[in-house]
Amino acid sequence: MILMDNIIREGHPTLRVKAEEVKFPLTEEDKNLAADMLEYLINSQDPETAEKYGLRPGIGLAANQVNVSKRMFALHLEDEKGELLSFVAINPKIVSHSVEKTYLTGGEGCLSVDRQVPGYVPRYARITAKFFTVDGKEQKMRLKGLPAIAFQHELDHLNGIMFYDHINEENPFASIPDSIPFG
Ligand SMILES: O=CN(O)C[C@@H](CC1CCCC1)C(=O)N1NCCC[C@H]1C(=O)Nc1ccccn1
Ligand code: NI
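Above: inputs. Below: predicted complex with N9Y.
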């Protein structure tokens, strides 16, 4: 199982490397990694398990956060309708997006960042995402709200981008043009 010790922290070079496309069919190793990443999120959201293993709760996890520079990430969260979204995205892409932006009013955090970095992180409010599942099926998904924000946070990781790269340096809480706040 993935523990906090397996999650690399800012300063580790792998967080700034653009991850490589995953080849199909996935190796057993890649399949196990995908399952382990999703399992981390589920474990981290269970208070007992999180407490027992000292896990920081997460709704998303990218492979490069466990020092594997491959284009895959896991998401495990509920959307605003309370629908569970739980999957591993392989070779994910944003194929289109809204002009409107959104941002978490409380700012963002990251399991690879052991400090608070205040400020609004502009994200596209709505995206159309494409990715492959572990068994090679192509998925196309329209996302908005927290799922859209999380998808973009994870895709950034695969491109070596950290959430604070998007925060306005002069004024971290500057209003974001054409945006709808979330949360
Ligand atoms: O790359 C992946 N990571 O770094 C884990 C991050 C990913 C999320 C950050 C913003 C969007 C995706 C993560 O899940 N967190 N970051 C650290 C604090 C806890 C947790 C979190 O934000 N939880 C949350 C947020 C909103 C609603 C409910 N829960
Ligand atoms: Ni992160």
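The mean pLDDT is 98.
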